[in-house]
Amino acid sequence: MERARYIQALQETFSRLKLYHRDTLWQEDMAAAYEPGQILQEADITHMSWKNDGMAAGLRLLIATSFAEDQTYFNAHASRFGHALLPRGSYFKVLDQYRLHQYMQVLLLHIPAPHLELFRWTISTLEEDLIKICRHHFEERLTIHPAPALLTEEWVHKTSHPTGLPATNI
Length: 170
Description:
It is a single chain. The chain has helices spanning 3-14, 116-121, 125-141, 153-159, and strands at residues 18-24, 39-41, 46-49, 59-65, 69-70, 83-86, 91-100, 103-111. It is α+β, with helices and mostly antiparallel strands. The strands form two sheets. It has a five-stranded mixed sheet with strand order 1-4-8-7-2. It has a three-stranded antiparallel sheet with strand order 3-6-5, with no helix packed on it. The longest helix is centred in the last third of the chain and has 17 residues, at 125-141. The radius of gyration is 15 Å and the shape is globular.
């Protein structure tokens, strides 16, 4: 792969990177579906929150993306959730699985479709640095209470399905 294309892919993926999450119930059989290095595709819209609070369930899917659409600009009600979206068909690379106590965090990097092959076969130092930062972030979040809005039936319904499952691994 030519160097300019590689640099462009990294810039597009990492330049405006922000962390979002969705918490769901952890089931032990999910671990194999979230092995680091796997590429997943979410068939549905990905609902997630930018509210940086404690965990609302046993599994935190931490989504790193530069392409989220913040719904709070369009809908005042969405601000109580910190609601952001990614479109149907989004691709994710599983960067990390991290367990502490009864909790688990899975770090997913949202990958633009044109760069899918690049991220499938490479691991950049940016990815390695992101893993370190997100592990520390996770440890801090275990001592904080979740945002009350993220415990509501409305939000839990939007985020209860684990991202990328049961979609076929690519």
